[in-house]
Amino acid sequence: AQSVTQLDSQVPVFEEAPVELRCNYSSSVSxxxxxxxxxxxxxxxxxxKYLSGSTLVKGINxxxxxxxxxxxxxxxxxxxxxxxxxxEYFCAVTDFGNEKLTFGTGTRLTIIP
Amino acid sequence: DTGxxxxxxxxxxxxxxxxxxxxxxxxxxxxxxxYRQTLGQGPEFLTYFQNEAQLxxxxxxxxxxxxxxxxxxxxxxxxxxTEQGDSAMYLCASSLESALNTEAFFGQGTxxxxx
Lengths: 113, 115
Known about the structure:
The structure holds two protein chains of two kinds. Chain A is mainly beta. In chain A, strands 2, 5, 6, 10, 11 and 12 form a six-stranded mixed beta sheet that branches. Chain A is globular and about 40 Å long. Helices cover 0% and strands 53% of the residues of chain A. Chain B is an all-beta fold. Chain B has no helices and eleven strands. Chain B has strands at 5-7, 10-13, 19-24, 31-37, 44-50, 53-57, 65-68, 75-79, 88-95, 105-106, 110-114. In chain B, a hairpin with a 6-residue loop joins strand 7 and strand 8. The mean pLDDT of chain B is 92. Chains A and B meet through strand 6, strand 10 and strand 11 of A and strand 4, strand 5, strand 9 and strand 10 of B.
């Protein structure tokens, strides 16, 4: 069975500072990894995904993530955050051939002006 | 086609009543998923369809829940005899089956409150 752990439930960051949101997963098979963002009372929007190839993945809104197989991690980073990045961020995993997603519990990113 | 559409956006119902939600996926997408998200949690998988066939159901989907996707287009999720524990955001997503896993596009969700 797969699982996703997002250790930080809340992360406050000053505007224009860098941020890293942590995600660790467990799976007995090869996986695809995703980061989604959810704004208040909205659905989920895909930020980026890792399917194969380069372990550094770039997404929308200046976010990037690095897949580390040995540490089973897929941490999300942004070098300089903006007020508009305030949202809930979810890491998710699915294994090859199984497209249902298993989500973490989310990290609420709050940007401090 | 502007994406996955869910109706209604909000639903308040009394305990014991039945409710039905609708999801219209992106038109060319053959896979459709339902997830449930409770406060402070990530979405949890409920069920998914490939075309009109319901291929997998989670243990979370009790016998009070039923989902359909007639003709492989829109889908409905019905909850019978609602309970307060059913209060949650119900999310629908769709994707296009391909050799390489692709993105699931989510709707804005239906927020159910059972009073």
